[in-house]
Amino acid sequence: MAVEQERGHDEPAHTSDAAALGALRDRVAKLEARLERADATIEQLRDDQRFFERLNEAVPAGLAYLDDRLIYRYCNATNAAFLGRPLAQILGQHLRTVVPENPTLWQTIELVVATGEPYPLQELSIVFAGREREGVHHFLIAFLPDRDASGHVRGVFLIAHDISELVRTREALRFLTDASSALATSLDIDTTLATIVELAVPRLSDMCLLDIVVSGETRVLAAAHDDPRTQALLYEIRERYPFELTGPDANIAWLDRLTGEGPIIQAAPVEAMLPLYARDDAHAELLQQLRTSATMFVPLLARDRLVGVLSLAMGRSGRGFELADLTLAEELARRAALAIDNALLFEQVQTAEASYRGLFDGAADAIIVTAANGQHIEANEAAVELTGYSREELFAMRIGSGALMAEGPEWTQIDAEQLSQNSSWRGEWELRRKDGSSVPVESVVQRVTLPSGSVSIGMLRDISERRQIELMQREFMAMVTHELKGPLTAIRGFSQLMRRQSTYNERGVDAILNQSAQLERLINDMLDATRVDAGQLDLRRADTDLCELVVACAEQAQTATTRHLIRSSVTATPIVGQWDRDRLAQVFGNLLSNAIKYDPDGGDISIAVSDDGDSARVSVQDAGIGIPEEAIPRLFDRFFRVGDTTLASAKGLGLGLFITRSLVEAHGGTIEVSSTPGVGSTFTVLLPKGN
């Protein structure tokens, strides 16, 4: 009232009310402006919230927030997908409820809450069970603490990236790298096969069977993870029911599908597979014992041909095969097929090398291989033996150096041109051995073109024996000519004498008959030698009294000499056997004639018979010049005569003892000689009776 009175004194009352109203309106306007700004801020915040919500949903990383009690307060769609649960089963739930199988994860987040220290971005494996995303998954994950103004941890931010596929790829690459290294460590086929099944189990499957084709036959190897009984069962199944990859029993249609379409996966338990694979009830029972949950058959292809099949199966793990398993199995199969093919090729090369080495080193002729530059690069054992040089010493030599040539250059220009034009050369030359001695050789050189270049293969044959035989043949011809010429000359002389005198001369007739007999003996000796070579020395066996035969031979031999006394010693009881009388008479006649021939001064010669039970023994002993020790090993050889004797009585063809031994051996017997030069010799014949 006082105010109004005062106003009444100063100004009208309506003026005061208007001012108050204006002030009120100003305040209202300011409040409205503030409200508009607040609404705009709220809308901006809502826009920001919607943006961040869209960002959180769109980002490929999993985002979540857990309070200090580890209750999920926020989880974006990506993280919910990682967890394999709807948001309703995540928000408001405890960490241990959402991921109950992962105590390591719980402890890690609890440590962040307790210490306030962040868990930096690291790889962490999380196990999911009882949900769509079963199994082990791998994440790059970080936990960041959320602090209030006082520094107290009131929650944890979670950021996660699913790297399961990356880890699987990394592990697959590591597996394949390790597989390649393991398969490359050996070219032995058995080691290679064992390595393949060891790689497959348990990385790809719980059990594995590997069937490969080796030399047209199927070879099997089996493996089972930590279960020897299952492994034994796999072998039993294959042994009783072979998996034929070749031959008439092969499942051609099934193999064509494998090679044409690739691996076959059967994602079914064993019971569903029995109608397809069981051949009979017993086979079905064995397959059921495996309790497989899935099977995969992968062809092993090398150089466009099937070398084997890798059979993989899941058993006690109960797992199935995924696309990643198929890809990995195919990659392993490629490497395994290549390793098997290389091992088989190496095995073939080793076999070929062994065959080559066996033929090369086992060759009777010396072989020396020379490179295009003239360097010797290979030699067999016969070459080492022939030359006396070691392989290393031969390899240090070059063709054309003359090191192996006894006389003159080893290689002439004409020889070189012949080899160049015809790719071959043949000739004879004297080889100088390491010890300085020389040996005649026949050589054949053949040029061969190999992938590594051309080489010359020289074959050398020691022709010393051939040269000796040729010399012996020449000497034999001269000897035969000489031996035949004497009797013929005597026969001609006595015949001409009787013709001139036109009278019968008994002495001349006797001489002609004796010389004719000598000619007949020479001819018969040559015929017998020919029969021995032809294997036609037939015997006419009959009961023969050896005692009577020896006495007759001694008497016959005595008529041929007046300077010797031939004594026979026989048993009182006849010694009878199945022998050829005429051939044995030839044997004893040769031995007695030989004794007379090599005892020119005359003396006693004895021939004795004794009974040795199943055999009979005949000995001829003389007191002649004897036989040198070095000549005894060759005494019974064809054309061999002892030393360079000048004894007129010792002349002959050198066939007598050769034929004697042949006749004795034809009877199944043996002949031996003992001799002392200047004292005499003893020949002993042992003859089985053959009764």
Description:
- There is one protein chain.
- This protein has six domains: 2-54; 63-162, Beta-Lactamase (2-Layer Sandwich); 176-348, Beta-Lactamase; 365-459, PAS domain (Beta-Lactamase, 2-Layer Sandwich); 467-530, Helix Hairpins, CATH 1.10.287; 537-688, Heat Shock Protein 90, CATH 3.30.565.
- It is 47% helix and 24% strand.
- The protein contains 20 helices and 22 strands.
- Strands 2-1-5-4-3 form a five-stranded antiparallel β-sheet, sandwiched between helices. Strands 7-6-10-9-8 form a five-stranded antiparallel β-sheet.
- A hairpin with a 5-residue loop joins strand 13 (424-432) and strand 14 (438-450).
- The radius of gyration is 56 Å and the shape is rod-shaped.
Please report the total strand number as a whole number.
22
Mind telling me the CATH class of the largest domain? Answer: Alpha Beta
CATH architecture of the largest domain: 2-Layer Sandwich
Q: Biggest sheet: strands side by side, in what order? A: 2-1-5-4-3
The CATH topology of the largest domain: Beta-Lactamase
Total domain modules: 6
CATH superfamily of the largest domain: GAF domain
Averaged pLDDT, please? 80
Put simply, the count of helices is 20
Unreliable residue stretches: 1-8, 644-650
User: How would you classify the helix and strand content by structural class?
Assistant: alpha+beta
